[in-house]
Design goal:
With about 140 residues, this protein is α+β, with helices and mostly antiparallel strands. Helix content is about 20%, strand content about 25%. It has one domain (about 5-125): RutC-like (60s Ribosomal Protein L30, Chain: A, 2-Layer Sandwich), CATH 3.30.1330.40. It has 2 helices and 6 strands. The chain starts with a strand and ends in a 10-residue tail after the last strand.
């Protein structure tokens, strides 16, 4: 099994010195994404605006790797101010209206985030095990 790496693609943040994602047919590990435009430039905004753009980046990367939103199983959210925790929860509820099917989440505050952003998100996507595979 070899790893596939996503380093660029249409609409994805460009110019970053790391893979946007790495994974296999069954898993995708998406790098932390702040509110960046397609040129890799930080787009400051309200907490919600930055969360929206960070999440769109995560979802574009997942899509490029062949994964859908319902296959996101884990999200790590790093916020610059723990005072934004309730804003993150409000934003999360708008994204995932069916909480039982929402991904697991871990959130923490960092002393500083890249570009001075308010939130950065990374994610893990996983496919259901295929039933047509024979265990080795």
């Amino acid at each position: 099994m070899s790893a596939t790496r996503i380093v660029d693609g249409p609409g994805l943040p460009a110019g970053l010195p790391f893979s946007l994602a790495a994974g296999t047919d069954d898993f995708c590990f998406i790098s932390g994404m702040p509110a960046l435009d397609a040129l890799g430039r930080y787009q400051p905004g309200t907490f919600e605006e930055e969360a929206d753009l960070a999440w769109r980046n995560v979802m574009r990367i997942a899509d490029t790797a062949g994964f859908a939103q319902h296959e996101i199983v884990y999200v790590q959210c790093v916020i610059a101010d723990i005072g934004d925790y309730s804003s993150l929860n409000d934003w999360w509820r708008r994204q995932f209206t069916d909480i039982p099917s929402a991904p697991a989440r871990f959130t923490f505050q960092a002393a500083a985030l890249p570009f001075g952003c308010k939130v950065e998100m990374q994610a893990v996507a996983a496919r259901r095990p295929r039933t047509d595979r024979v265990p080795s």
